[in-house]
Write a structure and sequence with these properties.
- By secondary structure, this protein is of the alpha/beta class.
- About 35% of the residues lie in helices and about 20% in strands.
- It contains 16 helices and 20 strands.
- It has an eight-stranded mixed beta sheet with strand order 8-9-11-10-14-18-15-16, with helices on both faces. Strands 1, 2, 3, 4, 5, 6 and 7 form a seven-stranded mixed beta sheet that branches. Strands 12-13-17 form a three-stranded mixed beta sheet.
- Helix 4 packs parallel to helix 5 and helix 6 packs antiparallel against helix 11.
- The longest helix has 23 residues.
- It is elongated and about 80 Å long.
- The two termini are about 40 Å apart.
- The structure holds ligand BES and zinc ion (ZN) (2 copies).
- The site of ligand BES has 16 residues, from helix 13.
């Protein structure tokens, strides 16, 4: 079970403390042995020619050579100079292949190829972009089953290309089998990319750590809510952190009470499984730029007394994706040695209806004293996030990013591929740039000031929802959160801390057909951009 660490062990001889940590962060998730997550494949590169790779399957990219829609389709192998593979590609048009993105075909390997079989993957009309490489590699490993050793012959000429291919391939190989009894097909054991690029060791390490981060999010989200609740989430977070140089501070019910965290307590009090707040701190004692990430961690959202209808409740185990994403981003940043101070605030509660649950019309006092009238107990995310934002603000970080499956309205507005992004312009631009780097889809949305009036309460400072008028639900939630972002220093006139809000209610879960490295189910989206954002802050 030490597979994950191997690739890093090779490149990390000079930093033994990190080498040890690399040994399977996900394996530490544990539980009974039978529930252990399937390890991700070991990643490597080779300077051998693709035809010489001793693997079970060789992945080859193809792209269209003729104008769209004009049969017979011309397709050609992308980026490698191999006579045998090129002549195979020439026949593929006759088999009906077009080279379109996500197209795949597995064939027996022709003579002269060391692999047992080849998998051709369509790369569409932008085969040389990082996104094209990442997606093609992900499509390949996602669709392969019953294969141990995968070779990849996609064109990777630079370290960035190598990272994109290996990252896509490792993420696409993800499977969640922990809850399947009996035999399950073994996963891919190793992935080797044929490339002559320099700087491949760091690229391989970054790909390994990044794919692990995505897998950690997916594992946590996939875990059913009878096993994942606030206290067990904390245990799993501690196990995943292991010996990394990360400090954890935990607030249970009595500490939350003492600290005045009325939002987390209010949401959690309907459940027999009490809430938690977890601060996860990396490089706490440094002067480095400090990024705080606040994550929504509702381990199950039934809606509370404002109960969701049955169909709307299915899937609500994924309402803790934000917290999982914040945790995984900080773990990956620590493993990579990113020189940014980071603090993740995981706001963990289970939103259940019961005689102890919060009621509509209850007034909660958020940390720092702001009072909130609960008009809809299903708008619980913003209540726990309010406490998290206030707590994060008390340390006056240089930026606060929050990430939450906050509103069904985000899904209505943007669908299941794009995350909604709101907040202060400069930080929004930084997040957009990070997303551009990682190929994750986020879309900027406004926070119209006039919406604040819709949240007036008859009795408290603000209400958590408005009655009637159903427009702009995603923006209204963002406007609510903004109220809890603090100031850059203890000075009451100081400007507000730069803040950005990611509503990932749409893309956190893919309910449609798989695509690229994304399976049906949890995607792990935005964890890669958060790691990238931390890197960008390090060099500021
Ligand atoms: N967890 C949900 C958001 C959600 C809903 C995500 C559907 C994905 C799909 C959140 O807590 C919620 O229920 N929000 C309410 C807010 C409303 C009551 C103001 C919503 O979006 O309906
Ligand atoms: Zn809800
Ligand atoms: Zn929710």
């Amino acid at each position: 079970m030490l597979v994950l660490g191997t690739a890093i062990a090779r490149v990390c001889e000079e930093c033994p403390e990190r080498t040890a940590l690399a040994d399977g962060v996900r394996n530490a998730l544990s539980g009974p042995d039978t529930m252990a997550p399937m390890p991700l494949p070991r990643l490597a590169t080779s300077t051998a020619a693709p035809s010489e790779l001793e693997v079970d399957v060789l992945v080859v990219g193809i792209a269209p050579t003729s104008a769209q829609g004009t049969p017979p389709h011309g397709v050609a192998v992308v980026g490698i100079d191999d006579g045998v593979l090129s002549s195979v590609a020439e026949t593929l048009g006759m088999l009906g292949l077009t080279g379109a993105v996500d197209e795949t075909l597995r064939l027996p390997a022709p003579l002269g190829i060391a692999a047992s079989s080849i998998l051709v993957v369509g790369m569409g009309r932008a085969p040389h972009t990082l996104d094209g490489l990442r997606d093609a590699a992900g499509t390949a490993t996602r669709t392969l089953s019953g294969v141990a050793r995968v070779g990849i012959a996609l064109p990777a000429a630079s370290p960035a290309d190598v990272q994109a291919v290996l990252e896509g391939a490792a993420i696409g190989a993800y499977r969640f089998t922990a809850y399947r009894s009996g035999e399950t097909t073994a996963g891919i054991e190793s992935i080797v990319l044929a490339t002559k690029a320099d700087g491949v060791e760091r690229a391989t390490e970054v790909a390994t750590v990044t794919a692990d981060a995505v897998a950690l999010v997916r594992d946590l989200v996939n875990t059913p809510p009878n096993d994942l609740y606030p206290a067990s989430f904390v245990e799993r977070a501690r196990a995943a952190i292991g010996e990394l140089p990360i400090e954890v501070e935990e607030w249970g019910p009595s500490e939350l009470e003492a600290g005045g965290f009325g939002g987390i307590l209010g949401v959690g009090k309907g459940s027999s499984r009490p809430p938690r707040l977890l601060a996860v701190r990396y490089r706490r004692d440094t002067e480095a730029p400090h990024v705080a990430i606040v994550g929504k961690g509702i381990t199950f959202d039934s809606g509370g007394l404002s109960l969701k209808p049955p169909a709307g409740m299915v899937g609500m185990k994924y309402d803790m994706t934000g917290a999982a994403t914040a945790l995984a981003a900080i773990i990956a940043s620590a493993r990579l040695g990113v020189e940014t101070r980071m603090t993740a605030w995981l706001c963990l509660a289970e939103n259940m209806p019961s005689s102890t649950a919060m009621r509509p019309n209850d007034v909660l006092t958020i940390r720092g004293g702001t009072t909130v009238e609960v008009l809809n107990t299903d708008a619980e995310g913003r209540l726990v996030m309010a406490d998290g934002l206030v707590a994060a603000s008390e340390e006056h970080p240089d930026a606060i990013i929050d990430v939450a499956t906050l509103t069904g309205a985000a899904r209505v507005a943007l669908g299941e591929r794009y995350a909604g992004l709101m907040g202060d312009d400069d930080l929004v631009q930084q997040v957009l740039a990070a997303a551009q780097d990682t190929g994750e889809l986020v879309w900027p949305m406004p926070l119209p000031a006039e919406l604040r009036a819709l949240l007036k309460s008859d009795v408290a400072d603000i209400s958590n929802a408005r009655m009637g008028n159903a427009g702009a639900g995603m923006l209204l939630a963002g406007v609510f959160l903004r109220e809890f972002v603090g100031r850059a220093s203890a000075d009451a006139d100081a400007p507000r801390i730069p803040w950005a809000h990611l509503d990932i209610a749409g893309p956190a879960n893919n309910s449609g057909a798989p695509f690229g490295h994304t399976p049906k189910g949890p995607s792990g989206v935005t964890v890669r951009l958060l790691i990238r954002l931390a890197e960008r802050f390090a060099t500021k």
